[in-house]
Amino acid sequence: MAAQQPAQPQAAHGPKPAPHGVDPQAVHRLPDLTVEQTAALRARQRTRNRAMLVVLLGLVVLFFALTISRMSQVENPQTWSRPGGIAPNAPAQTAPSR
């Protein structure tokens, strides 16, 4: 006859309580990095942040240019403050016929 193993306690349903000092809502914990790894990580983050800055500044310039272009189509500047004031009564512009 096989020797019986001692009964292991049943795990309670649900997540285990977090050890003291650990954020229970943290998705994962980064491994301990060396100084060189940390420097490389920061350099990659800095590069990504600069690329994001360039993209966002490009969008700002694009929106500004579109706004100025749109406002230059209005002859009377007082119509800018009216709802629907971007040349609402202007004749429709059509392509020149050949």
Into which percentage range does the β-strand content fall? under 5%
Secondary-structure element sequence?
H
Shape: elongated
> Roughly what percent helix?
25-40%
Alpha-beta content class:
mainly alpha
- Spans of at least 5 consecutive residues whose pLDDT stays below 50 are none
- Number of helical segments with 4 or more residues: 1
State mean pLDDT (0 to 100 scale). 74
> Main β-sheet: number of strands, strand sense, barrel status?
none
Please give the number of β-strands. Answer: 0
Mind telling me the C-alpha Rg? 32 Å
Description:
- The protein has 98 residues and is mainly α.
- The chain contains one helix and no strands.
- It has one helix at 35-71.
- The chain is elongated, with a radius of gyration of 32 Å.
List the helices and strands and how they pair.
Layout: H1 35-71
Task: State the main characteristics.
98 residues, 0% strand, elongated, mainly alpha
Can you describe this structure in just a few lines?
The protein is built from 1 helix and no strands.
